[in-house]
Specification:
The chain has 226 residues and is mainly alpha-helical. The chain contains twelve helices and no strands. The protein folds into two domains: 3-62, no CATH class; 68-210, Tetracycline Repressor, domain 2, CATH 1.10.357.10. α6 packs across α8 (116-123). The longest helix is centred in the middle third of the chain and has 24 residues, at 68-91.
């Protein structure tokens, strides 16, 4: 049977009926995530390819998603939920907030590297309108929230000398994101063991907040030269 025949056959329509509603929507998202991982670029994943992978007709996709952007947004949100689960799993049972922070950040970087195009869509390719807002809210409620909570605990117990946990969380997130983005964009850089590189960079960024600046060191925003 040809691809066109399968697309219009009664068998294919019955499969779509069995996957109606939430189940079919979940199948569409899963198929899109897998296609995106293989293709490496969102531009190379078509709605028709997703329909073929799920075993439904293309119009069936549009019953659940208004357009390709809405589909990609749903995929990104689902991936961010997986990121949240990976971070929580990595830090499970770790009581010390400094070690918990390290576990969260390393899990964040490793997840980003394992899902490069999904991560790019989430953090480096602004979705239009409501889509961008949804993604930003998910990032704030998941990955960023973990960094903020641990930064707050480290300020409270006196480990970090800074007194603004929100600013600290943004700095730490910037460090983790910068490492992830560099390793994704430039995988061939001679950095040695990538996990060790990430770990060293994260630890130095975090430990810097435990130290008093040397005498004469300029305050943030001060002149670049003495």
């Amino acid at each position: 049977m040809s691809e066109r025949q399968r697309a219009t056959s009664g068998v294919r329509r019955r499969r779509s009926a069995r996957g109606a509603g939430d189940q079919l929507r979940a199948e569409i998202i899963t198929a899109t995530k897998e296609l995106l991982a293989r293709a490496g670029r969102a531009e190379d994943v078509s709605v028709r390819a997703v329909a073929d992978a799920v075993g439904v007709t293309t119009p069936s996709i549009y019953l659940h998603f208004a357009d390709k952007d809405a589909l990609m947004t749903a995929v990104v949100l689902d991936v961010l939920r997986e990121l949240d689960e990976a971070m929580l799993a990595a830090a499970e049972g770790i009581e010390d907030p400094l070690w918990r922070l390290r576990a969260y950040a390393l899990a964040y970087i490793e997840f980003a590297i394992a899902h490069p195009e999904h991560y790019r869509l989430a953090t480096m390719d602004p979705r239009p309108g409501h889509s961008k807002k949804e993604i930003d809210e998910m990032l704030a409620q998941a990955a960023f929230q973990h960094l903020f909570e641990t930064a707050s605990a480290l300020v409270e117990n006196g480990t970090f000398r800074d007194d603004d946990p929100l600013s600290l969380a943004f700095e730490l997130w910037t460090t983790a994101h910068g490492i992830a983005a560099l390793l994704i964009a430039k995988p061939d850089l001679p950095l040695g063991d990538r996990r060790l590189f990430a770990d060293r960079t994260l630890c130095r960024a975090a430990l810097g907040h435990t130290l008093a600046p040397p005498e004469g060191w300029p305050t943030p925003g001060g002149p670049l030269r003495p």
